[in-house]
Specification:
Elements (H helix, E strand, L loop, with lengths): L8 H37 L14 E3 L3 E3 L2 E3 L2 E3 L4 H9 L10 H25 L1
Antiparallel strand pairs: 1-4, 2-3
Helix pairs in contact: 1-3
Protein name: HK97 gp10 family phage protein
Organism: Lederbergia citrisecunda
InterPro entries: HK97-gp10_tail
Length: 127
């Protein structure tokens, strides 16, 4: 009967557990970095009104990372002060054509956001 002995497995398991902990900690930072890129595009893509009111450009935020059924996400967009007006711009009204800036920004900034997230993620794992 053959006898099989494996040594050093505990060290490898410990190393992978540490790597997983690092990845979990940096995940939020990476999501925020990607969100900041999309925020930049939203600010560029929304027009500034001439009205004396809160401006959309001044109220675009990157939310805190939160867990969903699909994984962790950050919400990027106008805050509560102006969110209702963003819907009018994004989808239009019966009297105004749509001037989408949210979806447009996500499309424009996707590659740059992924790159920013990757940079944060890989930089942290190399430490």
């Amino acid at each position: 009967m053959a006898k099989l002995e494996i040594s050093g497995l505990d060290d490898n398991i410990f190393m992978f557990e540490q790597l997983g902990e690092k990845a979990s900690k940096v995940e939020n930072k990476a999501l925020k970095a990607g969100g900041e890129v999309i925020k930049k595009y939203q600010i560029e893509n929304v027009n500034r009104s001439k009205k004396d009111q809160e401006h959309m450009q001044d109220n675009i935020t990157v939310g805190r990372p939160k867990e969903t059924d699909e994984g962790k996400v950050v919400i990027v967009g106008p805050n509560q002060k102006v969110a209702y007006r963003a819907l009018f711009l994004e989808y239009g009204t019966s009297k105004m054509a749509a001037r989408p800036f949210i979806d447009k920004s996500a499309d424009q900034g996707e590659a740059e956001a992924v790159s920013a997230m990757e940079k944060v993620f890989l930089g942290a794992l190399k430490k």
